[in-house]
Amino acid sequence: MPLVRAMTGGFTPPWPSKTPGIFVLLLGVLIVVALAELAIGPVNLSLQEIIAGISLSADSQGSIIVSYIRAPRLALGLVVGTALALSGCALQGVLRNPLADPGLIGVSTGASVGALSAIVFKDVMLGMLPPESHVYVLPIAAFAGAGVVTGFVFSVSRRGGATSIATLILAGVAVNAIALAMIGSLIYISDDQQLRDMTFWMMGSLGAANWTLVTVSFAIVAVAAFFLFRMGRELDLFQLGERAAYHSGLDTERTKRKVAVLCALAVGGVTAAAGPIGFIGLMAPHMARLIVGPRHALVLPAAALMGTILLLMADLGVRNAVPPAEPPIGLATSMIGGPFFLWLLLTRMKRDGLNA
Amino acid sequence: MLEVRDLTVRFPSGFVAVHGANVKVRPGEILALCGPNGAGKSTVLSVLAGDRAPSLGVAELDGRPLGAFDARGLARRRVVLEQSPSLSAPYTVERLAGLSIGVEVPPGLMHDIVHRSLEDVGLANIKDKRADLLSGGERHRAHLARILAQLAAAGEVEGKYLLLDEPTASLDIEHQISVLKIARRAADNGVGVLIVLHDLNLAAAFAHQVGLMNRGRMVSTGRPPDVFSKECLSEVYRTPIEVESDGRGRIRIAPLY
């Protein structure tokens, strides 16, 4: 704190004095987990090999593993974790409900329907497009699917008030049921090769990471994250309810549209690259609020750090559980996230009932 | 001046909440809207707040239609305390009180404004408490501090308005009076105040003008002693009501049971 005060010329910053320390700590944990992601695996690598791999002077087998397999995988993990955590945070803020999660309310499933349609109708769709645009088709289809779902969820969310847990979860059940029927139809009409692509993709994995995929999803998520990070005050004002937020000078309809589009973009972008990965968007903002308090200007960056840490830890877990086989990362996040969600639901229901 | 002329509000269900009402909120004056439940008082307030467009008639701020203002422009001219303000995040009282202040206000000034408004509502001593855990009355006062801070932060704008929807409903007598004194002070500083109020005695004691509404219509408007007659009140509230006057323009209203 004295350091901060000295740096800012005696001005006391408007956040709790321990906050900068918390961010340094989170960043430290993230660096450790990221290094572990690069070092640990079926082949354990040394720091020298990692540095050689990152600096693109790949000469040994180890450094080639880093630069072609583990580094893109790490980069994709950072992008996916950030996107899911920020989307969860923004959805929870606008819906005024801490149980909103891109997976639970069906945004990820919507993105899946979009992406799977692109896989199944690849030949029909891609025939018309130049080959260099193919890498964008999956994200665009996923964005469209996610956009339809966020639009639907915002239209059923109660105008003016907080969206009740019951509304949110029932909307999620409905969306997921419709989406699963559509996915079922896609599976029914697909051929063997498409079926294999779809099954692998549906479970969620960072395993397909390569630099092209990382670049595309990074570009998409960077745009969404840039705007989401700046929405702290808008999300704070939403905690007063839509009417009071409007009275305080916020164009609430514009904010909702912005969040819907940015979340669809972020979730669509990473779902196209890594498949549907659940519960990161639920857990990361919740943990972030526990450690930095309720202000969204702090919750957003803390959630992004938390989301990447959680996702990389889950990836480390699945990669090293039964090497060299690799269970899908979606299994790990659901295995931790499912009970977490249940706990959150039960404690909130005990306190406020289903209409909270 | 903030006003509605020949205001009719029809809800999507077809229910007509307000029929041809005229309401003028003048700078430096307190106007109290009174009347039974469902009379249309809060609907008039929501039109004046810019939440709802008139189905028929006009709603204007200084001759300009309210619909022509954007959210930020309106937020600098009028502040609104809802009937049941809510908060779904565990902010401290101090943070809640500063929440509606625009980002363009420098932090030092914001700090001063927030403290002054917390002192006005008598919550300065619990500024670090969590606002979502306060009692109903304290929470209402914390939200009042928030909109007073918003009003103060708007600076020296000509013609500012304070709209309060039943601000005293959850308060004890001491704080009911203190809220009306705050409204009075605002009016003395040139702010136009509209209060939806059930307590006729408070309205008679503090308002410069009162409007009595019933079933969506404005029954009568004017100075409190002129509007609050025994006959008129007894008919509107369908309850025998006695009005005593001290002969110097002050009245006391009492229902007979």
Summarize the helices and strands and which ones pair or pack.
The complex is a heterodimer of chains A (356) and B (257).
Chain A: H1 2-7, H2 19-39, H3 47-54, H4 61-95, H5 107-120, H6 122-126, H7 134-156, H8 165-189, H9 192-202, H10 211-229, H11 232-238, H12 242-247, H13 252-274, H14 280-292, H15 296-321, H16 329-352
Helix pairs in contact in A: 2-4, 2-15, 3-4, 4-10, 4-13, 4-14, 4-15, 5-7, 5-8, 5-9, 5-13, 7-13, 10-13, 11-15, 14-15
Chain B: E1 2-10, E2 16-25, E3 30-34, H1 41-48, E4 56-61, E5 64-65, H2 71-75, E6 78-81, H3 93-98, H4 107-120, H5 136-153, E7 161-165, H6 173-188, E8 192-196, H7 200-206, E9 209-214, E10 217-222, H8 224-227, H9 230-237, E11 241-245, E12 251-255
Parallel strand pairs in B: 3-8, 3-9, 6-7, 7-8
Antiparallel strand pairs in B: 1-2, 1-4, 4-5, 9-10, 11-12
Helix pairs in contact in B: 4-5
Summed up, the domain count of chain A is: 1
Number of helices of chain B: 9
- What does the oligomeric state look like here? heterodimer
Helix/sheet category of chain A: mainly alpha
Question: Would you write up a description of this structure?
Answer:
The complex is a heterodimer of chains A (356) and B (257). The relative contact order of chain A is 0.16. Chain A is mostly helical and 356 residues long. In chain A, helix 3 crosses helix 4 (61-95), helix 4 crosses helix 14 and helix 4 (61-95) packs across helix 15. Chain A has a single domain, classed as Orthogonal Bundle (ABC transporter involved in vitamin B12 uptake, BtuC), CATH 1.10.3470.10. Chain A starts with a helix and ends with a helix. Helix content of chain A is 75%, strand content 0%. Chain A has helices at residues 2-7, 19-39, 47-54, 61-95, 107-120, 122-126, 134-156, 165-189, 192-202, 211-229, 232-238, 242-247, 252-274, 280-292, 296-321, 329-352. Chain B is an alpha/beta fold and 257 residues long. Chain B has a domain at 1-77 and 159-167 and 189-257: Rossmann fold. Chain B has helices at residues 41-48, 71-75, 93-98, 107-120, 136-153, 173-188, 200-206, 224-227, 230-237; strands spanning 2-10, 16-25, 30-34, 56-61, 64-65, 78-81, 161-165, 192-196, 209-214, 217-222, 241-245, 251-255. In chain B, strand 1 (2-10) and strand 2 form a beta hairpin. In chain B, helix 4 crosses helix 5 (136-153). The model of chain B has no long low-confidence stretch (mean pLDDT 93). The interface between A and B is medium-sized, with 23 and 28 residues.
